[in-house]
Amino acid sequence: MFKKIFIILPLILLLSCQSNAQKTNSEAKVQKTDAEWRKELSPTEYYVLRESGTERAFSGEYNKLYKNGVYHCKGCDTPLFKSEHKFDSGTGWPSFDTAIKGNVGYDTDKNLGYTRSEIHCNVCNGHLGHVFNDGPKKTTGKRYCVNSVSLNFHPKEKNN
């Protein structure tokens, strides 16, 4: 009896700690093979977007960028965040209080032993980061903590 518990319990714990973010999403509009993703993305981009990795804090090119424009998904170029919603959270990753409606999806992430809300691109299912409830209270109260390497910045044209 106890042997079964010692075998089954670790198996249940292991399976319950896996994220749903990178499981096959039949609703994703952009579906590519692993080989296609590896060919298109740098090793770091692949690690973050396809393997739910995280870049080092304060290492991303967009952490301190405050130009006017839109941040798009590096995997499929879907617009995700507007620069007007970006703020300096002091965490070392680009932070936004709002995502472009319908373009960012959410999954439960228990990989660190506690529950977080993982965010991904709704078009290609690329991992972006996480969203927390410690953002600016005067707006949404949300902090979308995003890996720079998962983004492409498109500056706004001066005439627009």
Structure description:
This protein has 160 residues and is of the alpha+beta class. Helix content is 19%, strand content 25%. It is built from three helices and nine strands, in the order αααβββββββββ. The strands form two sheets. A six-stranded antiparallel sheet has the order 3-4-8-7-6-5. A hairpin with a 6-residue loop joins strand 5 and strand 6. The chain starts with a helix and ends in a 5-residue tail after the last strand. About 14% of the residues have low confidence.
- Spatial order of the strands forming the largest sheet: 3-4-8-7-6-5
Count, helices:
3
Largest sheet: 6 strands, antiparallel
* N-to-C span: 70 Å
Annotate the secondary structure layout.
Elements: H1 2-16, H2 34-40, H3 43-51, E1 69-73, E2 79-82, E3 86-87, E4 95-96, E5 104-109, E6 116-121, E7 127-132, E8 143-146, E9 151-155
Antiparallel strand pairs: 1-2, 1-9, 3-4, 4-8, 5-6, 6-7, 7-8
Features:
25% strand, globular, 19% helix, 160 residues
Brief description of this entry?
With 160 residues, the chain is an alpha+beta fold. Helix content is 19%, strand content 25%. The strands form two sheets. A six-stranded antiparallel sheet has the order 3-4-8-7-6-5.
